[in-house]
C-alpha cells in the first residue's frame, strides 16, 4: 500500500496463507497482493471480477486471514487511502465509493476532524520567534514574491492581495504568460521569495527556489514535510499539515499560517502601515466598491 503498517501486515499475512488457500481463493489473494491499492476503492464484486473469481471466494479469502468478511478486510486499506497513502485517482475513486455506500456522514466527520487537526498540528510545531523572524524579513525586503502553482496559486494570490492593502511591492508569481524563473530574473539579496508546494512537489517551484538561493534571496518555504526540497533550501521553513480524505492536499493550514504570518508582518511594521490600510479602504469606499449601509 505504500502506507500504513496495518495494511502491510495484512498483505504479509495473506502471502503467508497462500499455500493453504483453495486454488480459487489463491487467485483472489494473488490479485490483492499484486494490486493492493484496488482493495480500498473496490467492492467485493469488482475485486472478484478483476481476479476472475466469484464474490464469495473473495469473502472466504478475507476470512482465511482473520476477518469477518470483505468489508472488514477492506477497512485498513481504505484508511490508508484516507491518510494519503495513495495517489490522487485512487482517493477520488474512494470518495465516489463513499457516496455510493451512503456513508457521507462519515466523510463529513473525517473532513471536519482533519481540518481542525491540521491547524492544530501545524501551529503546535511553529514558534512565535520563527514567525517573527520571517515577518521581519518580509517587512525589510525590497520586494516580496509569493510563489504557488496549481491549487496553491490561488493561495499565493490571496496572500498577496491581502498584503497589498497595506504594503507595496508584493508580487504573486508566476505572472500570466510567464514562468517563476522569469519572474525572479532580477531579484537579489534585497528580496524575499515565499514558496509553497506539497507532495508531489512541483518541479517549477523547486527550480525557482534553487534559482532564488543562487541569487541570494531570502527564502520562506511552506511544505508538508521536513524532507521537502524547498524546506531544505529555505532560510525560514514551515512544515504544514495537509491531511484530508479529499484527493488533493488540504489548503486550510497553509492559508491559516499565511494569514498569521501576515498579521506578524503588520505587527513588526512601522506605524505608516496603519495609515496605508486606512487610505486603501477610504479610497474603496469613495469609489463605491462597498455596498453602502442603510441608515
TrEMBL record:
Q: Which UniProt keywords apply?
A: DNA-binding, Transcription, Transcription regulation
Name the Gene3D superfamilies on file.
Answer: Glucose-6-phosphate isomerase like protein, domain 1, Winged helix-like DNA-binding domain superfamily/Winged helix DNA-binding domain
Instruction: Tell me the superkingdom of the source.
Output: Bacteria
State if Secreted is listed as a keyword: no
Q: Name one GO molecular function term.
A: DNA binding
Q: Where is the HTH rpiR-type domain?
A: 8-84
Q: Which Pfam families match?
A: HTH_6, SIS
Domain SIS, chain residue ranges per copy: 134-279
Q: Which InterPro entries match?
A: Homeodomain-like_sf, HTH_RpiR, RpiR-like, RpiR-like_SIS, SIS_dom, SIS_dom_sf, WH-like_DNA-bd_sf
Query: A GO biological process this protein is involved in?
Result: carbohydrate derivative metabolic process
Q: What is this protein called?
A: Putative HTH-type transcriptional regulator YbbH
**Source organism (scientific name):** Pelagimonas phthalicica
GN (gene name): ybbH
